[in-house]
Specification:
- The protein is α/β, with parallel strands linked by helices.
- It folds into 2 domains: about 25-205, TIM Barrel; about 230-305, no CATH class.
- The protein contains 10 helices and 13 strands.
- The protein has a 6-stranded parallel beta sheet, covered by helices on one side. It has a 3-stranded antiparallel beta sheet with strand order 8-9-10. Strands 7-12 form a two-stranded antiparallel sheet.
- β8 (about 230) and β9 form a beta hairpin.
- α9 (about 265-275) packs across α10 (about 285-295).
Length: about 300
């Protein structure tokens, strides 16, 4: 469910889609994840502020002792502000797709950039941890420094730069958006270092890694729990990322909520991903790991007992 129909949406959400996962179904599953050692939940969408059971979900997750972060488009803030004030949301981020003209075009709604900036201020006023998640494409890369200046001026806590993934609605080609190649990703990483020097009070994170860093990067080890886990809008459970090939699904929480068990990482897959990443100046680690899974065929990465 979402109040926007963004042209790059990975889940193809929109105002006309009224189906949603019941909170009780999610909570039955997350209770089992907690027992396995998972501690944090990130709620995105769609749009959390229009999810009918957001209060029930956050309360249930807090009862299970999870840390909760939420990513919102910022158009509606009333319900999320209330949950922050009740201590049911620990961190909240507002998503951005570029400077005002491009952002509003992608969101399909005039004034959505201005409203998102206002939402950042509203969340900061209630003394919670506030961030921005910025979708970076080949179309807006050159404007990212100006956007970071605007965001940093709000005194927010964190900025996450997330390279566009061509999945969902973005994969159709109708959006006209381009993903970043290895050289553009490296340029983004260099910019992040500059941003951090310019704005030391803001924590910056980029969902990419330079190839020279991979040898020193702490990757999952064989036997580690699979993390992150992604629950899609239909209840499908995927390791790593939303765009992982569906044949690697661990199952569906609506059908098997009481029967999940998880195998651990296979070291062969991790090392294959590392090798792929080292061939480019920089890469999105999850994207390359996804490719490695897809190329290695049907080796088991997780099972339903």
């Amino acid at each position: 469910m979402c109040n926007f129909r963004c042209s790059h949406c990975y889940s193809q959400s929109g105002p006309l889609q009224e189906s949603f996962l019941p909170a009780n179904t999610i909570l039955q599953f997350t209770s089992k994840l907690k027992a396995l050692g998972y501690t944090r939940i990130s709620i995105s969408g769609g749009e959390p502020s229009v999810y009918p059971e957001i209060e029930r979900l956050c309360k249930g997750l807090k009862d299970q002792s999870y840390g909760i972060s939420v990513i919102s488009n910022g158009w509606q803030t009333r319900r999320l502000l209330a949950l922050v004030k009740l201590g049911l949301i620990d961190e909240i981020s507002v998503s951005f797709d570029g400077l005002p003209v491009q952002h509003d075009k992608i969101r399909g709604r005039l004034g959505s950039f201005k409203r998102a900036i206002l939402a950042v201020s509203e969340y900061l006023d209630v003394k919670t941890i506030v961030g921005a998640v910025v979708s970076v494409s080949g179309n807006n890369l050159q404007h990212i420094p100006n956007l970071v200046d605007v965001l940093a001026a709000t005194d927010l806590d964190r900025i996450q730069l997330h390279p566009l993934a061509l999945t969902g609605r973005a994969a159709s080609g109708q959006s006209g958006l381009r993903d970043l190649d290895g050289h553009q990703l490296l340029a983004l990483l260099i910019n992040v270092r500059i941003f951090q020097e310019l704005y030391p009070n803001v924590s910056f994170h980029c969902d990419a890694v330079a190839s020279e860093q991979l040898a020193h990067l702490s990757l999952p080890k064989k036997g580690d729990l699979i993390s992150p886990l992604v629950i899609t809008e239909t209840g499908n459970l995927l390791p790593i990322s939303y765009d992982l090939d569906s044949r690697f699904s661990l199952g569906n929480i609506c059908q098997h909520s009481n029967q999940f068990s998880f195998s651990r990482w296979h070291i062969e897959r991790i090392e294959t991903a590392r090798g792929r990443c080292q061939k480019a100046p920089a890469s999105t680690y999850y994207a390359e790991l996804t490719s490695a899974f897809n190329e290695l065929g049907n080796e088991e990465i997780g099972v339903i007992a």
